[in-house]
Amino acid sequence: MTGYQVRVAGGEADLEACFAVRKQVFVVEQRVPEEIEYDAYDAGALHVLAVGAEGPLGTGRLLYGPEALARTGGEDIGSLGRLAVTAAARGLGVGAALVRAIEEAARERGLSAVDLHAQTHALGFYERLGYVAYGPEFPDAGIPHRAMRRALAQSTVAGYPERSN
């Protein structure tokens, strides 16, 4: 597999690609019931998509504003979710690139932090990206999860955001 591009999903074809990756990873591989994989938040969420020559490789979404409030406790905190990378693309940095793209979109919207609900087996992945777990373990779709948060550095120099690793 060669290079890939990560972009904000635009248009129906990109959204269909995002949903196809989610179906493969969550519904087929992890046996999440399809009726709970897709929800009312999808329509207003910002979706990101990783694409290579082979096709879609990964996706994730950002909820922000009132849609994120129930999950995060603050309208200035985004909610990263539905992060999925195809089996063929795992280990290539696609997941980290998707997370960073979602964080950049959150910064552009003036958000101060990003929350997520991580499957417990993925805690180390998110910790390496600067996320800190808080609260007890809880089940989501029958899979153990933990809440995590990362504060975002806001842009300070000529429109270029600071990166905190």
Q: What descriptive keywords fit this protein?
A:
single chain; 165 residues; alpha+beta; Aminopeptidase; seven-stranded mixed beta sheet; 7 strands; 30% helix; globular; acyltransferase; GNAT_dom
Describe this structure in words.
The chain has about 160 residues and is α+β, with helices and mostly antiparallel strands. It has one domain (about 5-150): 3-Layer(aba) Sandwich (Aminopeptidase), CATH 3.40.630. It contains 5 helices and 7 strands; from the N terminus they run E-H-H-E-E-H-E-H-E-H-E-E. The chain has helices spanning about 10-30, 35, 65-70, 95-110, 125-130, and strands spanning about 5-10, 45-50, 55-65, 75-85, 115-120, 130-140, 145-150. The chain has a 7-stranded mixed β-sheet, with helices on both faces. A hairpin with a 2-residue loop joins strand 2 and strand 3. The longest helix has 18 residues, at about 10-30. The relative contact order is 0.15.
Across the major sheet, the strand order is 1-2-3-4-5-7-6
The domain count comes to 1
**Name given to the CATH homologous superfamily:** Gcn5-related N-acetyltransferase (GNAT)
Gap between N and C termini, in Å? 27 Å
List the helices and strands and how they pair.
Layout: E1 4-8, H1 12-29, H2 34-37, E2 46-52, E3 55-63, H3 66-72, E4 77-85, H4 94-108, E5 113-119, H5 123-128, E6 132-140, E7 143-151
Parallel strand pairs: 4-5
Antiparallel strand pairs: 1-2, 2-3, 3-4, 5-7, 6-7
